[in-house]
Amino acid sequence: MKWTLYNLFFGIVWIFLLPGFLVRMIRRGGYAARMGDRFALYPDDVMAKLRSAQTVGHGEAKQDSSGHEVPPASEWVWIHAVSVGEVQVAGQLMREWRMADPDVRFCFSTTSSTGWKMAEREVTDKDVLIYNPLDFPNFVKSALGTIRPRAIVLTESEIWPVFIRAAAKRGIPLFLVNARVSDRSAPRYRFAKFLFKDVFSCFSRIFAQSDLDRARLVEAGAPEDIVTVTGSFKFDVARRNEAKERELKGWLSDVKGRILLGGSTWPGEDEILLKIVKSLDDATLVIAPRHFEKADAVEANIRAAGFECIRRSRGEHSPKGDAAKAVYLADTTGELMGLYGVSDVVFVGKSLCEHGSQNMIEPCLCGKPTIVGPFTENFRPVMSDLLEGVAIIQVADEAELASEIRRLFNDPADAAKLGARATTAVLRRQGVVKKCVSEIMESVS
């Protein structure tokens, strides 16, 4: 009864969310042509590839938990991730799995156009890339019946109750990797424990980022014996891109002095950085906004602050006027890691004016003195490790951010020591992905 009510409630909510969803789709574009995926209706080329996978095991049908016959599993391992960070986590898992089993084939699903663009870089010709079906019984059942995965791996907090329960009924092993429960989500999970205990019980294993995440998952109904604390996958995900660094040095070749980078900034943070850079001598600001569709607004802020805007997406390279009066706008995909490598001081966005923060591991791996704001709950275990190693600076507000940036620019020796500690802290905590992949492969072999 409770799941009938859940499906009814979800359907009503979806109707109200649909207009906003369509507006976002039009603005961002990218997946209108694959709208059928949401209803488990896949293009012919995807269907041909899905059918090409041979059955595994003995190719015998089995029964689900309701006694209905289920076709034998295919070769596909279904991986689901949404955000850029989750896609990177999934990509690292896939690469590690391929090293252990070159014949593995992945069905990679996401729900956003941004996630899709990132996922395209992670899949090979052997894999398929789809949008996840809407979490309604008929669409989920059809998707699972078409793909027939031999295992499903979800990332971080991707909890889709209908999808998870339907997969478990078919006897498909389910895994949740790099699992986390945010401060905002924890009360909701506890409140709806009567639902989530059924969902979390469907998993074969849950790999949590921290002891706190494990405790919150157990409080939400996850069986204690299936939840293991492994640490964060994101320490393994970070990889320097030296080729991209060399390319970006060319783009920034006219920069005089040192570079302050605002990485994955959100509205409000750009204006703060523009104000700060005005007070710095011998410094150039580079802004890489989190959402590139907002680049026009960022450019307007740059010009309103009295700076010339050098925009990467337009192929602009050299300032037309005084180089000291130019701000570089990096509004292209896949270049942030390279930008970290060529910067002198880094501020990581969505941590000062928004809750959650973006990935601070990447600039730390590059040995850059890195600053974040007070809102880093999405990276709680990571921040705990970095702060313990005195490997990152966390500020409370705009004034403290300005003070720390000035201090680092005025004391390059101390900045270099901070960057060195950051690299050491990241390297010391790598190896989580290999351990988790090994345990998952053992479970599904």
Describe what this molecule looks like in 3D:
- The strands form 3 sheets. The chain has a 7-stranded parallel β-sheet with strand order 5-4-3-6-7-8-9, sandwiched between helices.
- Helix 11 crosses helix 14.
- The model has no long low-confidence stretch (mean pLDDT 90).
- The longest helix is centred in the first third of the chain and has 27 residues.
- By secondary structure, the chain is an alpha/beta fold.
- The protein folds into 2 domains: 204 residues, 3-Layer(aba) Sandwich (Rossmann fold), CATH 3.40.50.11720; 187 residues, 3-Layer(aba) Sandwich (Rossmann fold), CATH 3.40.50.
- The chain has 19 helices and 16 strands.
Structural topology:
Blueprint: H1 2-28, H2 44-52, E1 62-63, E2 69-70, E3 76-80, H3 84-100, E4 105-110, H4 113-119, E5 128-131, H5 137-147, E6 151-155, H6 161-169, E7 174-179, H7 185-191, H8 193-200, E8 205-208, H9 211-219, E9 227-229, H10 234-237, H11 242-251, E10 258-265, H12 269-278, E11 283-289, H13 295-304, E12 308-311, E13 326-329, H14 336-342, E14 345-348, H15 361-365, E15 370-372, H16 380-388, E16 393-394, H17 398-410, H18 412-428, H19 432-444
Parallel strand pairs: 3-4, 3-6, 4-5, 6-7, 7-8, 8-9, 10-11, 10-14, 11-13, 12-13, 14-15, 15-16
Antiparallel strand pairs: 1-2
Indicate the proportion of strand residues. Answer: 15-25%
Total count of domains? 2
Main sheet: strands, sense, barrel: 7 strands, parallel
Structural class: alpha/beta
What are the main properties of this structure?
Rossmann fold; 16% strand; 2 domains; alpha/beta; seven-stranded parallel beta sheet; 445 residues; globular; 16 strands
